[in-house]
Amino acid sequence: MEIAESYGATVLLAWEGKLPFVELIDYTSRLESAGLQPLAALLYQTWLNRNPSPYAHAVNFNLGATLNTLGDTAGADAAYRRAIAIAPAFAQPRLNLGLLLERAGQVDAAMAEWQWIVGNCPRDDATRPLVQLAMNHLGRVLEAKKQFPEAEAYLTQSLLLDSDQPDVLHHWVFMRQKQCAWPVYADVPGVSKEAMHEATSALAMLSVSDDPRDQLHAAELFVEAKLAKNLPQLTQRQNYGHKKLRIAYCSSDFCLHPVSLLTVQMFELHNRDLFEVYGFCWSPEDGSATRQRVKQAMDHFFTIHQLSDEDAARLIRSHEIDILVDLQGQTSGARANILGYRPAPIQITYLGLPATTGLPSVDYVIADEFLIPRSEAQFYSEKPLYMPHVYQVSDRKRVHGPRPSRASCGLPEQGFVFCSFNNSYKYTPEVFAVWLSLLKQVPGSVLWLLADNPSAEKNLRKVAEDQGFAPERLVFATRVSPENYLARYLVADLFLDTFPFNAGTTANDCLWMGCPLVTYTGRSFGARMAGALLTAAGLPELITYNLADYEALALALANDPQRCAALRTKLATVRETGVLFDTPLFVRDLEVRLQDLVTELAPRQTLAEPV
Questions:
Q1: How many other CB atoms are there within 10 angstroms of residue 286's CB atom?
Q2: Is-contact 68 96, C-beta < 8 A?
Q3: How far is 114 from 155, CA to CA, in rounded Å?
Q4: pLDDT tens-place string over residues 433-478
Q5: What element of type H or E holds 214?
Q6: Residue 136 and residue 171: Cα distance in Å, rounded?
Q7: Which of 214-223, 539-548, 597-606 has the lowest mean pLDDT?
Q8: Are 174 and 203 spatial neighbours (Cβ–Cβ below 8 Å)?
Q9: pLDDT at 2
Q10: Any idea what DSSP says for residue 237?
Q11: What is the pTM of this model?
């Protein structure tokens, strides 16, 4: 090619000190556009060694970016540091050096580079975008460290510089939910409440609205903004004709995570005469017993962290998977583009996101008729695959620790114990107000909550304090092992569900341990999860449909210990003989439905091979 042919002469000019800076930048830009990054790096290095120049800082920056593209992180690090040493006020290399340091695990050093930019760069047209990026990186890293107030402060500053940042706004909204910072849609100059609602992610929307149309809209916005378009389709909706159906589960949560805690026994119980079970995993190696059970339950288990989405999809396709079950949805760690390549003829979503995914590549969502009433199915991009009893599978092998003493839990020796061990982002001011009202009406009672993060605890205590409650009326439980967490339900008297984002796995745990639960049911998937479980348990009397009835029922139970005891007795029977926790029955029912789906497909002979 022409540019490669002139390369030797251009390097010679650089060696002789005769290649002007502008021509260097133009030529290396053309080299990189042609995919010749190694030649560009060599030319930059030659020029820097042979040309004393006031532009050396800029060339070192470009060299660092090129070396980073080539995977030479040590060389990129050195080039960025030379650029900073020559021109300390030059912000671009600090921004990129921070990213290198973060990837190397040096998070504090990365933050120092970005904080320098925020603290020292002017907010003019030239540097404002860099300052915003630095603020956004700081917000992102601090959010991952659960330092939510500091993260929120940086993202707020970023929004004040540029209010039109939907991605920043969606993190800002979710962080405020996690902190119970109410109202979540707080005033930010230049940002309308409508923009906040529009930027709310599919997961965060679950705590904002129980309207399934809002859930669908949030999911569709994600698909439009984030998913690749016009991907090659690796298979068609046709039947491979395997003697055993090949079912694959894919997830980043094959570890000590609620999804695996629910599904692990399902993997174990699949009928191996009829099914061959695959796992495709990009989960952390957390060393947990749950992860080991998941891996051992699969006939074939693949880790795909290192693969691109396309390569992962082609791997799945190469195994001729009949049914691919995504356990992720749009939750953290999702790789929705894998599904976009259509590596399996039938693709299903299950459990990960308790809402519609909006993904065109997902055909079905596993549900029951309480969870997704047929009248609401129009607001789901997937077709409901209705289970006859309950949508949620359970692990009958889970064990609990010994019953803890009330004192060891920080609870008083006497008094009714209301609990809600849901994540703090599910708490809302409307429902929390009901909880405080119950404390007021039940003397000596306490509210036992999950200590999810210090900011949430501080904000919730402030709300209670402002209404005159003594600090000891709210008790926060730190995270413990699954066995000891389950044992806490032996001490609690009544679980108060959240709305509009109900308990899911937590409700399953609560009922398994025999603790009564009162739920408030709405219209959306997330607002009907606990109601679906109570329906399967034969306890519809614990389902309410408005806040007033929810409060009245919880109050009645708190004042009726005999009724609470009767509910525990009923739940003990449900645990042993009811359909709610009948995992073998669930698996058989699911397998029948999966076989029916494959039978409906056209035969293999017209199946297109992947390109």
A1: 11
A2: yes
A3: 13
A4: 999 999 999 999 999 999 989 999 999 999 999 999 999 999 999 9
A5: helix 212-226
A6: 10
A7: 597-606
A8: yes
A9: 73
A10: S
A11: 0.92
